[in-house]
Amino acid sequence: MYDGIMNAGGKKPVVVLAGRPNVGKSTLFNRLLRRRRAITDSMPGLTRDPVAAEALLAGKAALLVDTGGFRLDRGTPGSPGDLLDALVVERTLRAVEGADLVVLILAAGEVTPEDEEFIALLRPLRDRLLVAVNKTEGGRLAGETWNVLRFGFDRVFPISAEHGDNVEELVRAIAERLADAPAEGRAPAIRLSILGKPNTGKSTLSNRLCAEAASIVSDIPGTTRDVVEGRFVWKGVDFAVLDTAGIRRKSRVSEDVEYYSVNRAIRTVGEADIIVQLIDAPEGFSGQDKKIASLVCDKGRGLIFALNKWDAMPDAKNTFNAARDSIRFFFAQMNYAPVLPISAKNGEGVGPLLNTAVRMFEELNRFTETSKFNAFLERAQAENPPPSGPRTRFKIKYGVQVSTNPVVFRLFVSRPSAFTAAYRAYVCNRIRKDLSYRTIPVTLEIRSSGGEKRRPR
């Protein structure tokens, strides 16, 4: 199995979509998932890292993997583009080797030298190979589809990934071939998303966590485009880790592809339990880092500030304390979030990072009984009473926790309009301290208890 992408604590069969660039792999991937997961564009070679997602194919649970395109021409030898192309092809071949089933995708009416070389490489895998000929919408080029049989395939599936023609037939064939594949295992317990500016080490950290090069690592900014998902187990706890594209200011986003990459990275905030925000320790943090952290806070997700490349920092006694204090000052509204020094490259600090994530996940999923919460509210108001002026007076009548992960408490107040930001901050801080939600954001919803009179119009 290609363990860099998947399979911690139990295994689903792995279905890999493969082929040369621009034959419609990502379009088919999205259609099989019934949602837009991989970025699609007419630009050849858009997908670089294998992108994985769980899918239900005719009732059969599987892990579906979209791969980069197989190329013969891999750029100018020795150039950065050549290096990336070679890495993409290597990653594709490794995914294919570890698959339970490979779906080779060709384009109708166009068998190229790249197709022929890839077909030759796949011959040893014929017992776990299906062939789909894409771009045959409305029967277009259907006659030429059968010419592919000259390569010795028993069957081909003419499809249109974009329009859905004959895709269900392909899905049924996939499910039939997976009938004897391993059964579904347990799902990952904790979903981590790694966010940060370009070149802060996100893919390096992701690969270290998964003990496998699931993401391509390069000094070229913007190497990661899609969200790359890997899985691993830490001290018996299942994790899924989402490696994302670097997030930078809108004014520096120069391509449509990068725009979609950045938006896909931002979307993972809502899909994850905990965000690991990587900050380049020698470079320091910026206003863009603050925007990322604020987004995480607004979504109620757990947040860990990870100061990466700490091995390059001066070995002075107070270096970390100074960096942590600076972050506390710069991110004042998120001073509950842990700050940890790490080196994704050599693994220093990764253990404490994961231990922190486990504790944080427990807090995110903690539920406080209503009676206990209201006893807490009585103590908090007694120790620091609300304002008592005629226009500022209010009282918290009762409260209840309405959700976990994110943690939300609803307070019913006699005069919601008088409930100040300062008192909100006081209640949140007391909740963290007294009820042990120490490292996560806490959201308060303020509702009227029915005692506030409306002003006459």
What would you note in describing this structure?
The chain folds into 3 domains: 14-177, Rossmann fold; 190-364, 3-Layer(aba) Sandwich (Rossmann fold), CATH 3.40.50.300; 370-448, 2-Layer Sandwich (GMP Synthetase, Chain A, domain 3), CATH 3.30.300.20. The chain has 12 helices and 15 strands. The protein has helices at 25-33, 80-97, 113-122, 142-145, 167-177, 202-210, 256-271, 287-298, 319-330, 350-364, 370-383, 421-435, and strands at 14-18, 51-57, 60-66, 101-107, 129-134, 157-158, 190-196, 228-234, 237-243, 274-280, 302-308, 339-341, 396-403, 408-413, 443-448. The strands form 3 sheets. The chain has a 6-stranded mixed sheet with strand order 2-3-1-4-5-6, sandwiched between helices. A 6-stranded mixed sheet has the order 8-9-7-10-11-12, sandwiched between helices. Helix 11 (370-383) packs across helix 12. The longest helix is centred in the N-terminal third of the chain and has 18 residues, at 80-97. Mean pLDDT is 78; it is low at 1-10, 37-48, 74-82, 213-227 and 245-262.
Which CATH first-tier class of the largest domain would you pick?
Alpha Beta
CATH superfamily of the largest domain: P-loop containing nucleotide triphosphate hydrolases
Can you summarize the main beta sheet?
A: 6 strands, mixed
**Roughly how many Å is the radius of gyration?**
26 Å
CATH topology value of the largest domain: Rossmann fold
Work out the helicity level.
25-40%
Taking pLDDT < 50 over at least 5 consecutive residues as the criterion, the unreliable ranges are: 1-10, 37-48, 74-82, 213-227, 245-262
**Count of helices?**
12
Give the count of structural domains: 3
- Category by helix and strand content: alpha/beta
Roughly how many Å apart are the termini?
70 Å
Record the strand order, biggest sheet.
2-3-1-4-5-6
Look at the structure and give the mean pLDDT.
78
Provide the succession of SSEs: EHEEHEHEHEHEHEEHEHEHEHHEEHE
Determine the strand fraction and express it as a percent band. Answer: 15-25%
Name the overall outline: elongated
What's the architecture of the largest domain in CATH terms?
Answer: 3-Layer(aba) Sandwich
Question: What's the count of strands?
Answer: 15
